[in-house]
């Protein structure tokens, strides 16, 4: 929380600290001035402590990318979005391309926007199906030129990144669901990062959909590897297999995403408490079912209905939504996702 007492973050130079404090107030004279002041302090510390121009160039570009992408997405924060990954090499006449185009068209019709990597192949199909108005492109600048595809090029929502880490941050930070079509190293990298961040609680819960045309064995082979090597050798738990869903039709993928947000709305951590914001209240009978089935993932106490907590008032986010509050162990995220899927079957 912002009002918690914390160690002062200063440069150690009184003259510089005063300039920073004045500049922060001039730039952002509201409740976030403390964060602006800390960022300016970090920049000043870099100038005082570092003589490595390469380091400074990297940090400078990374910060510029973060600022610009945040500016673009700010206007769309309350709109659900799906990020689509897949091969840049998929041909326009391939089943995967046609499937990605159809998926994007239908998910937009269901109130979502679409984020892609902005290139050719599956990325192009995603932007084409969604349409320019409901598309975002997060392109990467490569040694060999990769332009934004024609269905998003020139739009203000077509963003280019120098650094993969910034690009990948915004893929997850700004989306509510992940859909993975067959692809190469990049697709698998993005898929594993999604799974890792959700598995460790570093990303908000989300549906992760592995999709391929009927008859394709791409994800079947991947699941076989994950099961036989990662699960059976103990590198991940069996419950982690519940972090993703494998489907062969666009309709099933759409259903999985819509079902994930039928009752569940969003998550917030307040101190030791895990707060689930809901689209509709659950009866005491339904909450008892949750407690009976998932008490094992709680450190203490039980799952209880609640309104917004006092600590949530500052952010003013979704204060009117009903909530469930629990002392989740923040370890068993595979089972936590299973609980969310069960929760979404309740309240009918």
From TrEMBL:
<dbReference type="GO" id="GO:0005829">
    <property type="term" value="C:cytosol"/>
</dbReference>
<dbReference type="GO" id="GO:0009691">
    <property type="term" value="P:cytokinin biosynthetic process"/>
</dbReference>
<dbReference type="InterPro" id="IPR031100">
    <property type="entry name" value="LOG_fam"/>
</dbReference>
<dbReference type="GO" id="GO:0008714">
    <property type="term" value="F:AMP nucleosidase activity"/>
</dbReference>
<dbReference type="InterPro" id="IPR005269">
    <property type="entry name" value="LOG"/>
</dbReference>
<dbReference type="InterPro" id="IPR052341">
    <property type="entry name" value="LOG_family_nucleotidases"/>
</dbReference>
<dbReference type="Pfam" id="PF03641">
    <property type="entry name" value="Lysine_decarbox"/>
</dbReference>
<protein>
    <recommendedName>
        <fullName>AMP nucleosidase</fullName>
        <ecNumber>3.2.2.4</ecNumber>
    </recommendedName>
</protein>
